[in-house]
Specification:
Keywords: Hydrolase, Signal. Pfam families: Glyco_hydro_106, Glyco_hydro_2_N2. This is Beta-mannosidase-like galactose-binding domain-containing protein. One of its GO terms (molecular function) is hydrolase activity, hydrolyzing O-glycosyl compounds. With 840 residues, the chain is α/β, with parallel strands linked by helices. Among the domains are: 122 residues, no CATH class; 155 residues; 79 residues, Immunoglobulin-like (Sandwich), CATH 2.60.40; 122 residues, Sandwich (Jelly Rolls), CATH 2.60.120. Helix content is 27%, strand content 23%. Helix 7 links the parallel strand 9 and strand 10. The chain starts with a helix and ends with a strand. The N terminus is likely disordered.
């Protein structure tokens, strides 16, 4: 019997493992907001089936505020019924091959009904030299029923354990559990103290902070005051890591969960905090300002208010993953790309490409909202765009984006980082400056990187490295302890290797960090100080005698042969064997990885308008294959001697590809620009096929313009229309071999047929499709079905039926966070705007 029992256990384990293996991390996942947790099993199943059919790999449950009229349907968070629908979601996810994650709470940040006043976030101020400590009073933002309450004090010694006790009892009753627990960005505004902070400071910093309180408000540049401020921030950072990030991660792992952690926004060292998680997660909020012709940016988006995405901020998450050997690094992706009902697939792709080049490989869309099937259009919506859900205007073509992400992430997840330079993050120089965030502390946000990153010499150096084609990661003081150096001076963390440790121009350096630099240098590591050596040791306790020792050790270090104080950084990096990729010089953005056994892998994105095609030297050399996601593999021309080869690369603005010396896949025709093109002009027949509110009358066009200029109801139409034209070639079909069809400006997605042959779907910039052998000399029939946004219809819908805006809390707002009102919008250009031409 015992043997039979063991065999059964083995079979069950294998079955469970097969379920786990069926979940894809290469497919994109999505945030899934449960409004009021007013969910039903039937609708959960229906939406999961849609997600699976669309090509998603998983969902992330976030319970939030409720819907008016559904109060009785709301399910309290972590109650018996809530746990049952959560487990139903997990079971259905397994059936459909979808993973499930969830927030360890509702809304954000951590907090809720079991956070007492004593556990709640505290704020400290100093007035007239006296300490004043008060609760911040902040409550959980966007909380769901059963999740309301005070925000947790992130520095409290026992706060996290007490907070998680609620989940202990809940999950003890749950047989089916999510893959991961999630911790959203910090956002504990004004939190800068805890009940034993003074004692902790005394123990860690070796002096009494309470005797130095007036120095925290000093604005004269008093050297001692600066040291005290650094010590204060250092203590906050340590408590946040030890009492918040690590206990939550340890608890999650003990319960069988992996962790996704958004460390940004916190006053700690992001590198250490991200590394504490299994999956570090960054965030892409708003629209980057890519110089891609035809790429639209919502004019109402406020850079002053929200900032723009920045790849250097994203690299903090990927650096932590690379150093610690974590396969996955994720991103909250697509938040507020444009106003509601105005986001196109062509706007999403460049933002994802930027994330890929910053080392991200596990995309989470922001996002989708649970909406009852009976609600119809537009359904329940989260207050912030983008809507990736079932009612989105791009839902029909959503699988195309997901196939693209899946293809890319399979390559990126199954390769290892290949960065030459490890850049030390001198966070103490930041702490020495006046904080630009509330509570007198530096909050390291992804939104306003200018407040903590870009203005520092560290930020300026990182921008230089990024723009000049260097492959690099960031490293913290604590992470330096994990590095070793081999006989060749190569640095390794055990998971990633680097040719050089680069120290930015900095004023302050901890003595512990100097000891680590000395240890690595003595082992042969190549260390470069940019422009100057640090000047001042951190720590106010016994500073004078420690400063003397610091200066002596620093001098000894700088005299070692493998340590350089650089006045010509490019030359010194080259001496250390660091590769400078010409891709960046050409205006291209890239991430370089290694597929194993010395096989390089480059993901290259053209996010600008300075390159279209030309000869490029690839740092690793050799014959490269060009793999275009969803199109195929080609072999570019090569020239030059071994070790200095160049390839002829064609990559138009908005396009992306992989380059590797070993590639599999179907052959793709490579279009070489000869400068020839043929404009397709004449009489276009336009017929509206399906959409809302009704179908406008057919039309004939001699010039391609927005269909909103047509009479009838076309200015309010959201849906699909077909353009049809017949044309002759100026020469033979053979003269147009390997031609491509350039559709010009498409609003927003185009399904194309030529002479009855399906050419594919143009869904991103550039709207170009290969023609193949579909052309003939005479009587070519070109049919283009174009689907537009839903914004124009919402101009009418918001006049006639505004009752869809029925949500509690913030309800629904526009991109300026004002009351949503689509009735004021002007019609958005729609349809095929062209010009349409053959290029060959």
């Amino acid at each position: 019997m015992r043997r039979i029992f063991l065999i059964l256990l083995l079979i069950l384990a294998q079955f469970a493992n097969s379920n786990a293996q069926s979940v894809s991390t290469s497919k994109p996942w999505t945030y899934w907001w449960w409004m009021g947790s007013a969910v039903t099993k039937a609708d959960i199943t229906a939406q999961l089936e849609y997600f699976s059919k669309s090509g998603l790999g998983g969902v992330h449950i976030i319970p939030i505020y409720g819907v008016k009229g559904y109060e009785k349907a709301a399910i309290p968070f972590l109650g018996t019924q809530w746990l049952e629908v959560m487990q139903h979601t997990v079971r259905e996810g397994k059936r459909l091959g979808l993973g499930v994650d969830m927030t360890t709470g509702t809304g954000w940040p951590f907090g809720g009904p079991n956070v007492t006043q004593a556990m709640a976030a505290q704020g400290m101020t100093v007035a007239d030299g006296k300490l004043s400590v008060k609760p911040t009073g902040q409550k959980v933002k966007r909380a769901a029923p059963g999740g309301e309450g005070f925000v947790l004090d992130p520095f409290n010694a026992n706060g996290m354990a007490q907070y998680l006790s609620r989940f202990d009892s809940a999950f003890a009753k749950s047989a089916d559990k999510p893959r991961a627990m999630y911790n959203d960005s910090y956002e504990a505004y004004g939190a800068n103290w805890t009940e034993d902070f003074a004692q902790q400071f005394q123990w860690r910093r070796k002096y009494d902070l309470l005797a130095k309180l007036p120095l925290l408000n000093d604005s004269t540049g008093n050297p001692e005051a600066t040291l005290v401020k650094i010590d204060y921030h250092q203590t906050l950072a340590e408590l946040l890591l030890e009492r918040y990030a690590k206990p939550w991660t340890d608890w999650s792992r003990a319960h069988g969960f992996v962790t996704r952690y958004q460390a940004h926004g916190s006053p700690g060292n992001l590198l250490d905090l991200y590394e504490a998680a299994d999956i570090p997660e960054t965030e892409s909020f708003g629209t980057s300002r890519f110089n891609i012709p035809g790429l639209r940016v919502d004019p109402d988006y406020s850079i002053d208010q929200f900032g723009t995405p920045n790849p250097l901020a994203m690299k903090f998450a990927s650096s932590a993953a690379n150093l610690s050997g974590k396969k996955l690094v994720s991103s909250e992706t697509g938040t507020w790309l444009a106003n509601h009902f105005k986001v196109s697939l062509s706007q999403i792709k460049p933002q994802i490409d930027e994330l890929f080049t910053a080392g991200i490989n596990h995309i989470f869309y922001h996002g989708t909202t649970y909406s009852p099937e009976k609600e119809g259009f537009p359904g329940w919506l989260f207050y912030a765009s983008t809507n990736f859900g079932k009612t989105s205007h791009f839902s029909e073509h959503f699988p195309l984006l997901n196939r693209y992400v899946d293809f890319c992430q399979r390559q990126l997840q199954n390769s290892k980082p290949d960065n030459d330079v490890l850049v030390y993050f001198p966070i103490h120089d930041l702490w020495a400056t006046k904080a630009k965030s509330g509570g007198g502390v530096h909050l390291l946000e992804v939104h306003h990187v200018d407040r903590w990153l870009l203005d520092l010499p560290f930020g300026k150096l990182s921008e230089k490295l990024w723009k000049e084609g260097y492959a690099f990661d960031f490293v913290s003081d604590l992470q330096l302890k994990k590095l070793t150096a081999d006989a060749n001076g190569t640095l390794t963390s055990g998971n990633a290797t680097y040719r050089t440790l680069l120290i930015p121009s900095a004023t302050y350096l901890p003595e512990e960090t100097l000891k680590e630099l000395q240890r690595l240098a003595n082992a042969g590591a190549k260390i470069v100080f940019d422009q100057k050596l640090p000047v001042t040791v951190t720590g106010n306790a016994h500073h004078e005698e420690r400063q003397k020792t610091f200066g002596e050790v620093l001098t000894q270090l700088s005299n070692l042969r493998n340590v350089k104080v650089s006045t010509n950084l490019n030359a010194d990096l080259a001496t250390n064997g660091v590769v400078r990729e010409q891709l960046a010089e050409k205006g291209l953005t890239f991430v370089r990885k290694n597929r194993g056994e010395g096989v390089p892998l480059y993901f290259v994105a053209n996010l600008g308008n300075t390159f279209k095609e030309g000869w490029v030297r690839i740092g690793k050399g050799g014959q490269f294959f060009k793999s275009e996601p969803l199109r195929g593999v080609s072999m570019p021309e090569i020239r030059g001697n071994k070790g200095s080869e160049e390839i002829f690369l064609r990559l138009l603005p908005g396009e992306s590809c992989f380059l590797t010396t070993s590639a599999d896949g179907q052959d793709a025709a490579e279009v070489r620009n000869t400068g020839k093109h043929f404009d397709i002009k004449g009489k276009w027949e336009l017929a509206f096929l399906n959409g809302k509110p009704n179908l406008p009358a057919p039309a004939q066009l001699t010039e391609l313009t927005s269909w909103t200029s047509l009479p009838d109801s076309a200015a309010y139409f959201s849906g699909k229309a077909r353009y049809r034209i017949t044309f002759d070639l100026p020469g033979s079909a053979a003269s147009c071999a390997n031609a491509a069809l350039d559709l010009g400006d498409v609003r927003e997605v185009a399904n194309v047929k030529l002479n009855g042959k399906d050419l594919g779907v143009a869904w991103h910039i550039p709207f170009v499709l290969p023609v193949g052998k579909a052309l003939k000399s005479k009587d070519n029939v070109l049919e283009i079905e174009v689907t537009n946004l839903s914004a124009n219809y919402m101009r009418l819908r918001d006049q006639q039926q505004p009752d869809w805006k029925k949500f509690y809390d913030i309800n629904i707002v526009d991109i300026t966070y004002k009351k949503f009102d689509a009735t004021r919008w002007q019609p958005m250009p729609s349809g095929l705007l062209g010009p349409v031409k053959l290029v060959y």
